[in-house]
C-alpha cells in the first residue's frame, strides 16, 4: 500500500522514507492538506498530515469520498481536525500521543534566553561590525521566579531546567505533577502565577477551555518586566492584546514559536510576498520579541519518534488494532 504524506519538510523526508521502507511505500508532498490539495488524496487509503493542515468538514468530505480510511497526523495536537465530522464520515483519525519532551522544553528555554540576553539584536549588530553593548543588558535568572502553565511531560522537562538555574518554581495545572513538587514547585492559581512570575512559559494543549488562556486580563496581570514564552500552541495567547501591551512598552521579552494565525504562513517561504497579516507584521517589529516558525519539536530525536509512532499507527490500522493514539472512532 502507498501512503500519501502531506506537508513533509525536506529534513523530514529521508527519515519518513527510511522508517516506512519494508512496510509501505510513502509518497511525500511538501504542500499542506487543505481544500485545494485534498483531491490529490483520491485513491489513497491512508493519508498522513502535519499540524498545519486544515482538516475542516469540506476537506474531510473530499478525503472520505476519495476512499481515505485513516488520517495519521504527525503531531500531538489535533485542534486542526474536525473530529465530529470525521467520526460521522467513518474516518479513523490517529495522532502521536507523545514524543521527546526535551525538544520543546529546551527550545522554550532557548527563546527565553534569547530575549533575556538580546541575542538576536547582538547577532545582527556584530554582522555589521557594531560591537556596542548599549541596549543588550539582560538579567540573571538565578533566584527569580518562573511560572509554568501546564506541568505535563514538557512542562516537567522545562521545570527541571528552571530548577537547574536555581529559580523559584510556580506551577498551574488541573492536577499537580509529583515530580515538579519534588523539585520544589508550588502550585498556585493562575492570577497569582501571572502576578509573581518573572518568566512565564506555556505548556498546555489548545482546547476550548485554554483558547486565549493568556488574554488581555492575564497580560495586564503580569509584571511589566516579565518574559513570556509560548512554544505550545498559538491560540493560547490573544495576539492582538499582546501587541497592545507591547506597544505600551511592557515586558522584557516575548518568545513565540507559535502564532494563532500561523496556518498558511509557517513552514512556507513568504519572503517575496506582501505581508497581509497586520498583527504578525506588527509583532515582529518589536525589538524585544523573537518569533520562530513552530520549530520547537524539530530535533532528530523528536521527529524520529513522531515518524515511528505514525508508522505504528498505520500498521495498527491495517491489522485492525486500536491504540491510545486513535482519536476517532471514540471509545464509549
UniProtKB/TrEMBL annotation:
Keywords: NAD, Oxidoreductase. Its EC number is 1.1.1.28. GO terms for molecular function: D-lactate dehydrogenase (NAD+) activity. Residues 6-327 form the D-isomer specific 2-hydroxyacid dehydrogenase catalytic domain. Residues 110-296 form the D-isomer specific 2-hydroxyacid dehydrogenase NAD-binding domain. InterPro entries: D-isomer_2_OHA_DH_cat_dom, D-isomer_DH_CS, D-isomer_DH_CS1, D-isomer_DH_NAD-bd, D-LDH-like, NAD(P)-bd_dom_sf. Gene3D superfamilies: NAD(P)-binding Rossmann-like Domain (3.40.50.720). It is an enzyme of class 1 (oxidoreductase). Belongs to the D-isomer specific 2-hydroxyacid dehydrogenase family. PANTHER family: 2-HYDROXYACID DEHYDROGENASE HOMOLOG 1-RELATED. This is 2-hydroxyacid dehydrogenase.
Amino acid at each position: 500500500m502507498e501512503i500519501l504524506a502531506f506537508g513533509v519538510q525536506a529534513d523530514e523526508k529521508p527519515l519518513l522514507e527510511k522508517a516506512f521502507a519494508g512496510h509501505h511505500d510513502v509518497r511525500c508532498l511538501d504542500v499542506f492538506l487543505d481544500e485545494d490539495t485534498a483531491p490529490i488524496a483520491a485513491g489513497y487509503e491512508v493519508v498522513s498530515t502535519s499540524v498545519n493542515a486544515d482538516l475542516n468538514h469540506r476537506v474531510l468530505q473530499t478525503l472520505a469520498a476519495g476512499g481515505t480510511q485513516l488520517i495519521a497526523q504527525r503531531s500531538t495536537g489535533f485542534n486542526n481536525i474536525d473530529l465530529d465530522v470525521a467520526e460521522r464520515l467513518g474516518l479513523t483519525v490517529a495522532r502521536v500521543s507523545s514524543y521527546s519532551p526535551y525538544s520543546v522544553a529546551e527550545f522554550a528555554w532557548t527563546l527565553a534566553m534569547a530575549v533575556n540576553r538580546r541575542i538576536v539584536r547582538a547577532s545582527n549588530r556584530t554582522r555589521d561590525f557594531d560591537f556596542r553593548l548599549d541596549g543588550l543588558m539582560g538579567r540573571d535568572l538565578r533566584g527569580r521566579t518562573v511560572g509554568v502553565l501546564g506541568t505535563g511531560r514538557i512542562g516537567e522537562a522545562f521545570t527541571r531546567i528552571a530548577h537547574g538555574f536555581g529559580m523559584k518554581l510556580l506551577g498551574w495545572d488541573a492536577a499537580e505533577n509529583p515530580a515538579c513538587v519534588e523539585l520544589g514547585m508550588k502550585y498556585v492559581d493562575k492570577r497569582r502565577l501571572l502576578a509573581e512570575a518573572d518568566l512565564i512559559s506555556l505548556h498546555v494543549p489548545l482546547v476550548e477551555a485554554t483558547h486565549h488562556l493568556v488574554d488581555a486580563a492575564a497580560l495586564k496581570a503580569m509584571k511589566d518586566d516579565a518574559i513570556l514564552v509560548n512554544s505550545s500552541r498559538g491560540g493560547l495567547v490573544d495576539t492582538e492584546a499582546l501587541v497592545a501591551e507591547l506597544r505600551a512598552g511592557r515586558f522584557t521579552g516575548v518568545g513565540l514559536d507559535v502564532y494563532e494565525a500561523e496556518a498558511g504562513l509557517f513552514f512556507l517561504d513568504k519572503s517575496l510576498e506582501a505581508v497581509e497579516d497586520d498583527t504578525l507584521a506588527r509583532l515582529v517589529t518589536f525589538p524585544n520579541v523573537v518569533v520562530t516558525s513552530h520549530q520547537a519539536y524539530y530535533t532528530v530525536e523528536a521527529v524520529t519518534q513522531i515518524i515511528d509512532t505514525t508508522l505504528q499507527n498505520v500498521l495498527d490500522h491495517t491489522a485492525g488494532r486500536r491504540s491510545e493514539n486513535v482519536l476517532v472512532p471514540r471509545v464509549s
